[in-house]
């Protein structure tokens, strides 16, 4: 577990290995766990009287961070193991792990003055300081729990607002660095595995239907990313023009629709004798066992049919939680461009890790 050093300087922190953090969503104990890996709610806020992080001077960013740390003392009565991480002190591996576990954004873990992360050791609560906005308050829960995730960030928002004044307009709502977050500043997203729809050729049509309901369907790492291994994030397109609860319910409703369509696709595959699923899973296992190197895209693509087979009860020797854990230890999101030698070493380590993970798997 990470520990915060008691010191007169609130920005002076020490971390034990980041990989000791156990993200709660890995456990697969949430609703609709076979299709929805996790639900995340995120509120964007800015401290009044300071420029947004992209325009602020280093001294202002440090001042904002100090204010937020002071304000967060009251949060520790609710979340006693909330710790403070100075992201500039993280190694490349630790930064990559935090992004893969969806505990921080790629931008947040890049070194910059005043950039810190407040984090629960179970990964349920993560508060990013001085990313695009002064505050990104995040809750991430296992399975499909849009309303509960929103309630968590709303509670934290209310607690911090007792000591912080946030930039807001009576007409526009909360002011944010990006116009797409203006208003409530709320993004609700569900991370989903749509492997059955991909296998049956229905994925594009189903995603199009979701998008027509003003819901975004993006890749594993949100805006600007592409679908990897049939994993997608489903989230609200806008944050202005409706109450926060309505956004949570709207994303939940579309996620419910996608869950139903995905299960229908999987049921069709199983009712047809499950041969297609079995063969796809066996092919993945064979390729993993033979591979000397695997890049991130290929690794997730190989895990996708295996996950469908596990959910269909066709596999022994590995659990859904094991597959979730692989997703945050494989080094999917690289934050720095590696040289050729580093890339090869990373691909070799990934292949070894996958081989070990599936060594006892039987389809």
Explain how this protein is built.
The protein is an alpha+beta fold and 363 residues long. The chain has two domains: 18-266, Glutamine synthetase/guanido kinase, catalytic domain (Creatine Kinase, Chain A, domain 2, 2-Layer Sandwich), CATH 3.30.590.10; 275-357, no CATH class. The protein has ten helices and ten strands. Strands 2-3-4-5-1-8-10-9 form an eight-stranded antiparallel beta sheet. The protein has a two-stranded antiparallel sheet with strand order 6-7. The longest helix has 28 residues, at 244-271. The protein is globular, with a radius of gyration of 21 Å.
Count of distinct structural domains? 2
How far is it from the N-terminal to the C-terminal residue, by CA? 36 Å
Q: What characteristic shape results from the CA principal axes?
A: globular
The largest beta-sheet arranges its strands as 2-3-4-5-1-8-10-9
Strand count, sense and barrel status of the largest sheet are: 8 strands, antiparallel
Structural classification = alpha+beta
CATH class of the largest domain: Alpha Beta
Number of distinct beta strands: 10
